[in-house]
Amino acid sequence: MAKKAVASLQTGSKRLSKAVKMVKSPKSGAYTFVEAIMAPELVKDWLAKK
């Protein structure tokens, strides 16, 4: 199960996106949230990666 959230950020002439992915810990089974700020073109690849 994956939860996706993407917000658009604009700083000057660069356009960035903040992506949030929910990741399950293999040890405890608890979910944690991983955040990253990147170019919009890279978001799909990052969310698909485990």
How would you characterize the overall build of this protein?
The chain is elongated, with a radius of gyration of 12 Å. The N and C termini lie close together (12 Å). The protein has a three-stranded antiparallel β-sheet, with no helix packed on it. It is mostly beta strands. 12% of the residues lie in helices and 54% in strands. β2 (14-24) and β3 (31-38) form a beta hairpin. It has one helix spanning 43-48, and strands spanning 4-11, 14-24, 31-38. It is built from one helix and three strands; from the N terminus they run βββα.
Low-confidence parts: none
Q: What is the gyration radius calculated from CA atoms?
A: 12 Å
Specify the overall morphology: elongated
The residue fraction in helices comes out at: 10-25%
Count helical runs. 1
Please provide the count of β strands.
Answer: 3
Short structural description:
The chain is mainly β and 50 residues long. The protein is 12% helix and 54% strand.
Keywords:
elongated; three-stranded antiparallel β-sheet; 3 strands; mainly beta; 54% strand; single chain; 50 residues
Write the layout of secondary structure elements.
Blueprint: E1 4-11, E2 14-24, E3 31-38, H1 43-48
Antiparallel strand pairs: 1-2, 2-3
